Structure formats: structure tokens, C-alpha cells
């Protein structure tokens, strides 16, 4: 056994520390490699890898990446559902007609859509294509011209007015609204063309200037979105 004095021990330790500080640290090769390209490209690669890894999970569509909490939506068929028992393919990707439908929107969570509340049975008449115009005291805002808008049915039933609808279509939709309790729900969607110049109508015995909004491409939801309270004018809903 070699015995060292305190002075010799401190001298030895000092030399060891000095040489350790001079010794270059070994960095793993993965950390030495720098990403090729700009930061945005690196971020895109990470997002792509994350998406591919996510789509291998159960409960995630392998085509669009939708989940139960972030589904796809079609303006006629509503929200998507699983097309297989593995739960890795949603209905709106499995069905060719739905996947190619321009009214199919994938992963709608967080998206905002415009809504117009209408009294029954006029709301039902709109989505069934039995009402050519929507009459309002205000002009359709430019940002909504040619855009698809949800039609929401209010709790209030209105009376028949021959100025605004045909009797047979009104009675048919009125009966459906009462029997199936179609109120406080989104029934479908339409596209409004540019509103026409106001015309005077007699409403509840009083003259009133109303704009005519031409109705285009009505679509009725197979299963309405229920229990939704309405609002005035054009409002927005977020999925």
C-alpha cells in the first residue's frame, strides 16, 4: 500500500481535474447532425411523422386522421362513424361518394360555421327545397353570399302567409315539424345568392320592406343536430 501525504494527494487530484477539463466531451452522432433545410421544413417533417404514427393507433382514421373527438362532417350525412371494427377507417373516407363530396369536411373540431335561425315550418321548407326565397328586413352580408349556411329551426311556429310560401308545402312541413318535434335544432344547410332589392309586403297588417334572398342547393341533414338554442341574425357555431 502506498501512503500519500495531504500535499501529494491534493497535487494528484488537481492534475486529474486539469486533464479531465482538457479532455473533449464525446457528443452522440445524432446530436452532432444538423437538420437539413429551414426550420419550417424540419417542422413539416415532424408533423408528418407524428401524423403517420398517430394513424397507426386504434380510433384514428388512417386516411384523414380524424378521431371520435375530432370527426369529419358531411352536410347531408352529418358526422362520420367507424367503417370497420379496427376503428382505423371512418365512414367519410371509406365511402367514395362521401370522400369526394365537396360538402365533406375532415376533422372539423374547432371549425366555425355560419347559422341562420328560422321559424318552423319555414326552416324545414328551406332545407327540403320547398321555399325559393328567404325574406328578411336586412340585406344578406356580402361575406355570406354563395357560402353554405346552416339552417336552424327555432322553437316558434309561425302562421301561413301566401306571400311567402305555397299552402300545400307549408302544411306538409308544418305537420312534420309538429309530429317529429323539429325545433331547437340544425336541420340542414343552404346557399344564399345575393339578396334582391327590398319590396313592400303587408306583414301582420303593417307595410314592411323585405329583401328576398334566393335559395340555392338546399341540403337536409339525415339526422339533425339537436338541442341547439337559436340567435338573432346570422350567428356562428363551433364544433
Query: How many individual helices?
Result: 7
Distance, first to last CA? 79 Å
Give a quick account of the main beta sheet: strands, pairing sense, barrel closure: 7 strands, mixed
Strand content: 25-35%
CATH class of the largest domain: Mainly Beta
Quick check: average pLDDT?
84
Q: Please state the overall shape, judged from the principal axes of the Cα atoms.
A: elongated
What is the tally of beta strands?
Answer: 10
What are the secondary-structure elements, in order, as H or E?
Answer: HHHEEHHEEHEEHEEEE
Low-confidence stretches: 15-38
Radius of gyration: 32 Å
The chain-level structural class is alpha+beta
The CATH topology of the largest domain is given as Archaeosine Trna-guanine Transglycosylase, Chain: A, domain 4
CATH superfamily of the largest domain: Hypothetical protein
CATH hierarchy: architecture of the largest domain = Roll
Helix fraction, binned, reads 25-40%
Count of individual domains: 2
Q: Could you describe the 3D structure shown?
A:
By secondary structure, the chain is of the alpha+beta class. The chain has 7 helices and 10 strands. The chain has helices at 6-22, 29-32, 39-54, 91-94, 96-100, 122-127, 167-179; strands spanning 73-74, 78-79, 104-105, 112-120, 133-136, 148-157, 185-192, 196-203, 206-225, 234-238. The N and C termini lie far apart (79 Å). Mean pLDDT is 84; it is low at 15-38.
Features:
239 residues, alpha+beta, Archaeosine Trna-guanine Transglycosylase, Chain: A, domain 4, 7-stranded mixed β-sheet, 7 helices, 10 strands
Amino acid at each position: 500500500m502506498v501512503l500519500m501525504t495531504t500535499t501529494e494527494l491534493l497535487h494528484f487530484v488537481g492534475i486529474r481535474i486539469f486533464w479531465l477539463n482538457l479532455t473533449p466531451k464525446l457528443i452522440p452522432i445524432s446530436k452532432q447532425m444538423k437538420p437539413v433545410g429551414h426550420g419550417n421544413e424540419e417542422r413539416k417533417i415532424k408533423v408528418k411523422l407524428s401524423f403517420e404514427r398517430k394513424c397507426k393507433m386504434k380510433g384514428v382514421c388512417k386516411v384523414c386522421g380524424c378521431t371520435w373527438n375530432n370527426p369529419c362532417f358531411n352536410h347531408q350525412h352529418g358526422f362520420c362513424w367507424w367503417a370497420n371494427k379496427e376503428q382505423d377507417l371512418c365512414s367519410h373516407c371509406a365511402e367514395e361518394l362521401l370522400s369526394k363530396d365537396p360538402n365533406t369536411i375532415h376533422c372539423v373540431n374547432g371549425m366555425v360555421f355560419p347559422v341562420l335561425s328560422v321559424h318552423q315550418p319555414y326552416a324545414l321548407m328551406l332545407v327540403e327545397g320547398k321555399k325559393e326565397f328567404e325574406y328578411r328586413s336586412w340585406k344578406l352580408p356580402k361575406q355570406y353570399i354563395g357560402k353554405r349556411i346552416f339552417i336552424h329551426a327555432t322553437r316558434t311556429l309561425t302562421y301561413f302567409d301566401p306571400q311567402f310560401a305555397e299552402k300545400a308545402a307549408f302544411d306538409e312541413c308544418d305537420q312534420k315539424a309538429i309530429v317529429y318535434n323539429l325545433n331547437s335544432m340544425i336541420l340542414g344547410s343552404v346557399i344564399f345568392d345575393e339578396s334582391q332589392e327590398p319590396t313592400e309586403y303587408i306583414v301582420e297588417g303593417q307595410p314592411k320592406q323585405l329583401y328576398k334572398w334566393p335559395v340555392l342547393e338546399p341540403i337536409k341533414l339525415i339526422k339533425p343536430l339537436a338541442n341547439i338554442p337559436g340567435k338573432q341574425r346570422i350567428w356562428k357555431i363551433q364544433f
